[in-house]
Amino acid sequence: MNRQEFEEKLQDIMNKAIRFQEPMKAHTTFRIGGPADYFLSLKNVEQIQKVILLCKEYQVPYEVIGNGSNLLVADEGIEGVVLQLGKEFSRTEIEGTLLKAQSGSTLSALARKAAEAELTGMEFACGIPGTLGGAITMNAGAYGEEMAQIVEQVTLLTNAGKQLSLSAKEMQFGYRKSILCQLPYIVLSADLRLKKGNRITIEKKMTELNAKRKEKQPLEYPSAGSTFKRPEGYFAGKLIMEAGLAGFQYQGAQVSKKHCGFLINATGTATAWDVKLLIQKVQQTVFEKSGVKLEPEIRFLGRTMQSNADSAKD
Ligand SMILES: Cc1cc2nc3c(=O)[nH]c(=O)nc-3n(C[C@H](O)[C@H](O)[C@H](O)COP(=O)(O)OP(=O)(O)OC[C@H]3O[C@@H](n4cnc5c(N)ncnc54)[C@H](O)[C@@H]3O)c2cc1C
């Protein structure tokens, strides 16, 4: 690949707004991750299209991220381009009970917008610190509800740069997964079907859920939320606690004492390697004590990270 030529064309598309060797720890809630070769905050669909076609032409890998709240990024960083769809890609519109939003919108902002419009159905998501794109990819959920229940339609960009709309059924939502765990497509926007509600009741529910999170979760430490998926018939946090691992620490990474399902960056200086070793220790100990295999819910990105168990984004 002619790197100089690639960079010149990328500069043109991005109007020079490229961050080179950008530390990913600044873009993940774990506050962990080495440099991305090229980091771009995308503003519009045309720009995203041009970037992915350029990457294809020059065979440069690319990854899409939202708020980085479900990611463990390698200490060695990420090869190629990281496209962030964040606040610059977050237009929203309400049509009756339909909330239409671009994928960089945060769930908390969407939940607030829905409440203001007296629409109920998004309260469960108000404390999940991700974007709509990440939440759809992961079928994020909480308190017995999940994105799959409110998504009506998703607009995607294929790796060939074409736009495509998929219904909720076609998105193949499952427990913390969607078709996007296998397909390298980008969520551009989605239509969320909500119901008419009462603003005071909606806001009360959101306040209660956020208070519950604050009480039960170690929000005062950097983390990526629950590290493991919930094994059928069990709770990951309970299994980890019963295995005697509450507070167990490997270098800077620790099993939270407040909620054992969360691995936290306890010192603020934990590396991805520390977290990976701690994940393995937890998996091994829990398996020995209970016979249950814990699977990571968080996604691994970057140079030395093994690919995600259920994904083959290529
Ligand atoms: C304190 C805390 C609490 C949490 N609580 C919950 C919870 O209650 N329930 C829950 O489900 N999760 C929870 N999470 C995890 C996380 O917030 C969710 O998984 C969230 O949906 C991830 O969104 P994101 O924008 O941060 O995605 P990222 O972490 O940036 O990315 C996650 C995955 O989505 C992909 N992706 C992101 N945007 C796009 C896009 N536009 N198009 C295609 N692919 C994309 C990425 O490539 C990656 O594979 C929590 C995390 C933290 C830190």
Structure write-up:
The chain has a five-stranded antiparallel β-sheet with strand order 6-7-13-11-12, with helices on one face. A four-stranded mixed β-sheet has the order 1-2-5-3, covered by helices on one side. Strands 15-18-17-16 form a four-stranded antiparallel β-sheet, with helices on one face. It is an alpha+beta fold and 314 residues long. The longest helix is centred in the last third of the chain and has 19 residues, at 272-290. It has seven helices and 19 strands. Helices cover 27% and strands 25% of the residues. α1 runs antiparallel to α2. It has helices at residues 3-14, 45-57, 107-116, 132-138, 199-216, 236-242, 272-290, and strands spanning 19-23, 35-41, 62-65, 71-73, 78-84, 92-95, 98-102, 119-120, 141-142, 145-146, 151-157, 163-167, 186-193, 195-196, 223-226, 249-250, 253-255, 262-265, 299-301. The structure holds flavin-adenine dinucleotide (FAD).
Summary keywords:
314 residues; alpha+beta; four-stranded mixed sheet; 7 helices; globular; binds flavin-adenine dinucleotide
Chart the SSEs and their pairings:
Elements: H1 3-14, E1 19-23, E2 35-41, H2 45-57, E3 62-65, E4 71-73, E5 78-84, E6 92-95, E7 98-102, H3 107-116, E8 119-120, H4 132-138, E9 141-142, E10 145-146, E11 151-157, E12 163-167, E13 186-193, E14 195-196, H5 199-216, E15 223-226, H6 236-242, E16 249-250, E17 253-255, E18 262-265, H7 272-290, E19 299-301
Parallel strand pairs: 2-5, 3-5, 4-19
Antiparallel strand pairs: 1-2, 6-7, 7-13, 8-14, 9-10, 11-12, 11-13, 15-18, 16-17, 17-18
Helix pairs in contact: 1-2
